């Protein structure tokens, strides 16, 4: 008996490349920056087509600005940081799958062995940094989440120490605009052909 269940075929490499070209062309580089567009694509891909993050990486390293190992290592640091921050939004599985997709295609000489959180420590300084960034993002609605978690302090601890303290408030690799862009894209990504439009995120940064 034939199955009545149908599922959409995953996008082909050709379709993914066409999407990357379209987003890059339409992105407001002049107002947001030339090195931001691929963070939108990356974060939207993670939730739905994580393996195509490897396709995105290959697309990027074929550009003139990433023609050297040093430039590709700098690119990987940005992509890896975006994936790490996506863990706080999407969990570990999909970002890890996306990271492996990059590892599968990167050359040994392009690998970056730096460790951005090597000296990270929990505590008052970390909480303060996380709270500052949390209040920056949600300055008009910060009392809602805090009051709702008053009786669930484990979650408030994770919010302060881990999500914002450990992940999202570290600006050593990605800046505030980078982080906001990828957060919006992470929440908005549903299918590869429904990556958030530039108009959907421009007003958020």
Poorly predicted spans: 1-6, 190-205
Percent of residues in helices: 55-70%
Sheet with most strands = none
Q: What is the overall pLDDT average?
A: 86
Rg over C-alpha atoms, rounded to the nearest angstrom: 18 Å
What would you call the shape?
globular
Distance between the termini: 52 Å
Strand tally, please? 0
Structural class of the helices, strands and pairings?
mainly alpha
Order of helices and strands: HHHHHHHHHHH
Counting DSSP H or I runs of 4 or more residues, the number of helices is 11
How much of the residues is beta strand, in percent? under 5%
How does this model look, in words?
Mean pLDDT is 86; it is low at 1-6 and 190-205. The protein has helices spanning 13-26, 29-32, 37-48, 52-61, 69-90, 93-103, 124-137, 143-148, 153-168, 176-188, 198-202. With 205 residues, the protein is mainly α. The longest helix is centred in the middle third of the chain and has 22 residues, at 69-90. Helix 3 crosses helix 6 (93-103), helix 3 (37-48) runs parallel beside helix 10 and helix 5 (69-90) packs antiparallel against helix 9 (153-168). The chain is built from 11 helices and no strands.
In short:
With 205 residues, the chain is an all-alpha fold. The protein is built from eleven helices and no strands. It has helices spanning 13-26, 29-32, 37-48, 52-61, 69-90, 93-103, 124-137, 143-148, 153-168, 176-188, 198-202.
